[in-house]
Amino acid sequence: MNDLVGIIRKEAEMEQALGRLAEFRGRIAKMTVEGHRQFNPGWHLALDLRNMLTVSECVAGAALLRQESRGGHTRDDFPVMNAEWRKKLLVCALDSDGSVNVTEEQQIPMRADLLELFEVDELSKYLTEEELPST
Question: Could you tell me the CA-to-CA distances from 68 to 43, 53, 82, 83, 110 in Å, in that order?
Answer without folding.
Answer: 39, 24, 6, 9, 19
